[in-house]
């Protein structure tokens, strides 16, 4: 199958290698046109870590070429790039092509759905709560993959397309997907904003000074207590919406190796079995610039709709805005575009289940 990947960063590269290893043909497009030159010149994509090998990958120079002949397009880029990329993809999509939004945040699937409705297109939109793999570029044509995830939660708009969506995801990436009922569960189930908030907030000076530090080593008991409290707020929102979502403890549990218990004790076991991952070495990291405006602020929006108190979420946004000298709430360019869906809980439930109404 020909798979289009919008995004040529570490995750895009890891997906290209993953798909090629499974016999699919992948084509990558860099929205900034700053990446992928080595691959475009014919160099193979070299993968290290959880997946080893050299793979042929095509490179597109524009959205039209990216989508030509593709059965599915995967958005593999931070949420702060979603709106711009969606706007560039929409004119070239055709009915029947599937869309996958990897590590979905801030209901960008609804923004995509609104654009499809405007054009009168029928394209299923599949949203994952996290990435199928991790990936960091280690060179112009190299990627280090530290993890192939055992489980990824997925939802689809419209809900009636779940069987076909699950079959598609499984064909592409193997049997690692667990369907959930609605897009609400995906946004609430994306734990990156929760975990990254604690890691970035309490290791900010290490990032600012460019130090090398291993993330797992700095999930100390104090940080873990903060993460557990932040997680309780997130799950409180989910309960108010009648949505089931896993806890931060469940996300780190590994049957027979890491049993559910106090998060600090779990992390001590995780360190023993999981490949080390270094934390960011700069303040310009998606741990903040993506997860605060598109993750934490979305949780606050849902909390306000349900009357759930989330003081830690609000405080974290305020602290990061002060530390960075930026208004992170104002940097979310997706929620204002889909505000009609957030006028009441019934309208949000309808939109997340069936998509934006066609005009």
TrEMBL record:
<comment type="pathway">
    <text>Cofactor biosynthesis; (R)-pantothenate biosynthesis; (R)-pantoate from 3-methyl-2-oxobutanoate: step 2/2.</text>
</comment>
<dbReference type="InterPro" id="IPR013328">
    <property type="entry name" value="6PGD_dom2"/>
</dbReference>
<keyword id="KW-0566">Pantothenate biosynthesis</keyword>
<dbReference type="InterPro" id="IPR036291">
    <property type="entry name" value="NAD(P)-bd_dom_sf"/>
</dbReference>
<feature type="domain" description="Ketopantoate reductase N-terminal">
    <location>
        <begin position="3"/>
        <end position="101"/>
    </location>
</feature>
<dbReference type="Pfam" id="PF02317">
    <property type="entry name" value="Octopine_DH"/>
</dbReference>
<dbReference type="GO" id="GO:0015940">
    <property type="term" value="P:pantothenate biosynthetic process"/>
</dbReference>
<dbReference type="InterPro" id="IPR008927">
    <property type="entry name" value="6-PGluconate_DH-like_C_sf"/>
</dbReference>
<dbReference type="Pfam" id="PF02558">
    <property type="entry name" value="ApbA"/>
</dbReference>
<dbReference type="InterPro" id="IPR051729">
    <property type="entry name" value="Opine/Lysopine_DH"/>
</dbReference>
<dbReference type="GO" id="GO:0008677">
    <property type="term" value="F:2-dehydropantoate 2-reductase activity"/>
</dbReference>
<dbReference type="InterPro" id="IPR013332">
    <property type="entry name" value="KPR_N"/>
</dbReference>
<feature type="domain" description="Opine dehydrogenase">
    <location>
        <begin position="180"/>
        <end position="323"/>
    </location>
</feature>
<protein>
    <recommendedName>
        <fullName>2-dehydropantoate 2-reductase</fullName>
    </recommendedName>
</protein>
<dbReference type="InterPro" id="IPR003421">
    <property type="entry name" value="Opine_DH"/>
</dbReference>
């Amino acid at each position: 199958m020909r798979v289009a990947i919008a995004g040529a960063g570490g995750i895009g590269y890891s997906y290209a290698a993953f798909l090629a290893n499974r016999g699919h043909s992948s084509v990558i497009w860099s929205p900034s046109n700053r990446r992928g030159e080595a691959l475009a010149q014919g160099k193979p994509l070299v993968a290290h870590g959880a997946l080893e090998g050299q793979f042929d990958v095509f490179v597109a120079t524009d959205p039209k070429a990216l989508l030509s002949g593709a059965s599915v397009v995967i958005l593999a880029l931070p949420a702060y790039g979603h709106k711009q990329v969606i706007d560039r993809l929409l004119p070239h999509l055709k009915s029947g092509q599937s869309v996958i939004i990897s590590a979905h945040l801030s209901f960008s699937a609804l923004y995509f759905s609104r654009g499809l409705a405007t054009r009168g297109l029928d394209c299923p939109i599949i949203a994952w709560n996290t990435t199928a793999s991790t990936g960091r570029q280690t060179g112009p044509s190299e990627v280090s993959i530290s993890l192939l995830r055992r489980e990824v939660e997925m939802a689809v708009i419209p809900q009636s397309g779940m069987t076909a969506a699950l079959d598609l995801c499984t064909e592409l990436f193997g049997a690692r997907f667990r369907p959930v009922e609605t897009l609400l569960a995906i946004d609430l189930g994306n734990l990156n904003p929760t975990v990254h908030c604690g890691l970035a907030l309490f290791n900010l000076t290490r990032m600012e000074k460019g130090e090398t530090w291993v993330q797992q080593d700095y999930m100390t008991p104090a940080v873990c207590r903060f993460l557990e409290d932040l997680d309780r707020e997130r799950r409180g929102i989910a309960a108010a919406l009648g949505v089931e979502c896993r806890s931060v403890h469940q996300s780190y549990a590994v049957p027979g190796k890491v049993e559910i218990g106090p998060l600090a004790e779990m992390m001590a076991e995780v360190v023993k079995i999981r490949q080390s991952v270094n934390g960011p070495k700069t303040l310009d990291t998606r741990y903040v610039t993506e997860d605060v405006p598109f993750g934490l602020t979305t949780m606050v929006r849902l909390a306000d709709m349900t009357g759930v108190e989330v003081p830690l979420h609000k405080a974290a946004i305020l602290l990061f805005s002060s530390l960075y000298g930026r208004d992170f709430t104002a940097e979310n360019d997706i929620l204002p575009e889909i505000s009609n869906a957030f006028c009441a809980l019934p309208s949000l439930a309808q939109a997340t289940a069936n998509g934006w109404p066609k005009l």
